[in-house]
Design a protein that fits this description.
Length: about 350
C-alpha cells in the first residue's frame, strides 16, 4: 500500500511530540499556566505557536520596521532597525532552544514580542519618558507587556508575557522559563554583534579598536561572533543544567558590552543625536498633556491616567511618524540631519 502524500499533524500530535522529545527543563505547551481569558484551543497549533502567530500579525510588531535600533535616522539601507534586530534575536533564540531541546515556539514567541514596547529612537525613549513616571520610570519591557495586554490585547499565554517582561538582564525577578533565558542571551548576542558591524560600517570603529580579549575569544565580528557565543552557551548549559554562559566567556562578552557603551551607544557622536530625540519626544508628550483632545480616541478610551495615555501614544510612534508629528505641531522636524 502506498504511503499518503501528507500526514495530519494537529495540536494533539504536536503536544504529544513535545511531551516525548523536549528536555525536562522545557515548558510543554500543554502545561502552560494559560491565558488571562480562557479560550478554546486551536485545532492545529499549540498555545505557544498560536502566540507566535498573533505577535507576528500585530500592528505593534509591524511598526518595528520604522523604529531605531542604535543609529537615529540613518541614510544607508543596511543598518539594523528594531525589526531586523528582532528577527535576528528570534533566530538565535530558536537556535539555542533547538540545541538544548527546549520549546522553540515559546522562545520564538517571546523573542518576536520582546521589543514592541520601544519608543521611537530606541533606548533614548526610556530616558525621555522616565521623568513623567517618578515612581519607577518608564521601561520598554513593561511597555511591551502593556502593549499586548492593553493596547492591542492578544490574550497571550502567561509564559510568553513573563518572558517578554524579563527579557532584559536588569529586570527583577528574572523570567521563569529556560526558553526566556534563551531570549535574554540571544538579545545580547544579537545587538553586540550587529551594532558593532554597524559602527564599523559607519566609520565610528575599526576592527583594531575592538578589545584584544574580544578578538582573541570571538574572532572577526559577524557570524563568527554569533557562532562562538552560541556554542559557548550550549556547551556550558548542558553541564550547568540551566541556560547560561561559562564565566570566562561571559566576562569577555561583558567587556565587549562595556566597550560598546563607551565608544558607540553613549559616545559623543551618538549623544548629540540622542539628545535631539529626547527633546523631540518630550515636546510631543508635553504638547499632548496640554491638549489631550488631540489624542486619538482609541488612547483616550483606555482606562488610565492622562500621562499614561499620552506615553502610550507617543511610545507607539515610529521614528518617521514622530518626526512628522513634530513638524506638523512645531514647524520643524526636531531631529538633526542623518548621522550616517
Amino acid at each position: 500500500m502506498s504511503r499518503p502524500a501528507f500526514i495530519r499533524r494537529d495540536r494533539l500530535v504536536r503536544e504529544a511530540e513535545e511531551a516525548e522529545r523536549l528536555a525536562p527543563a522545557a515548558v510543554r505547551a500543554a502545561d502552560s499556566r494559560g491565558r488571562a481569558h480562557p479560550e478554546p484551543p486551536d485545532e492545529y497549533r499549540t498555545a505557544f505557536e498560536r502566540d507566535r502567530d498573533r505577535i507576528s500579525h500585530a500592528k505593534a510588531f509591524r511598526r518595528l520596521k520604522h523604529k531605531t535600533q542604535v543609529f537615529i535616522n540613518p541614510e544607508g539601507d543596511h543598518y539594523v532597525t528594531r525589526l531586523t534586530h528582532t528577527i535576528q534575536v528570534t533566530q538565535i533564540a530558536r537556535a539555542l532552544a533547538a540545541a538544548l531541546s527546549l520549546n522553540e515556539a515559546l522562545a520564538e514567541a517571546i523573542a518576536l514580542g520582546h521589543d514592541v514596547g520601544h519608543s521611537p529612537f530606541g533606548h533614548t525613549g526610556e530616558e525621555a519618558l522616565s521623568p513623567y513616571f517618578p515612581n519607577g520610570g518608564w521601561h520598554h519591557a513593561a511597555q511591551s507587556v502593556r502593549t499586548f495586554e492593553v493596547l492591542e490585547d492578544l490574550n497571550l499565554s502567561w509564559e510568553v508575557r513573563d518572558g517578554i517582561r524579563a527579557h532584559t538582564w536588569k529586570v527583577k525577578p528574572p523570567p521563569v522559563t529556560q526558553e526566556a533565558f534563551c531570549v535574554r542571551y540571544a538579545d545580547r548576542v544579537a545587538y553586540l554583534t550587529h551594532d558593532a558591524l554597524d559602527a564599523l560600517r559607519a566609520g565610528l570603529l575599526t576592527e583594531g579598536d575592538l578589545p584584544v580579549t574580544v578578538r582573541a575569544r570571538f574572532g572577526e565580528p559577524g557570524r563568527r561572533w554569533i557562532g562562538e557565543m552560541i556554542t559557548a552557551l550550549v556547551e556550558h548549559s548542558l553541564t550547568a543544567g540551566e541556560v547560561r554562559m561559562d564565566d570566562e566567556t561571559l566576562a569577555v562578552m561583558h567587556s565587549l558590552r562595556d566597550f560598546m557603551f563607551e565608544h558607540v551607544y553613549i559616545g559623543p557622536v551618538q549623544r548629540q543625536h540622542q539628545q535631539d530625540a529626547i527633546e523631540l519626544i518630550r515636546r510631543l508628550v508635553d504638547h499632548h498633556l496640554q491638549h489631550p483632545d488631540e489624542l486619538p480616541e482609541s488612547f483616550r478610551a483606555i482606562d488610565a491616567d492622562l500621562v499614561t495615555q499620552v506615553a502610550d501614544y507617543v511610545a507607539g510612534m515610529t521614528d518617521r511618524f514622530a518626526v512628522a508629528t513634530h513638524e506638523r505641531l512645531f514647524g520643524t522636524p526636531g531631529i538633526a540631519d542623518p548621522v550616517l
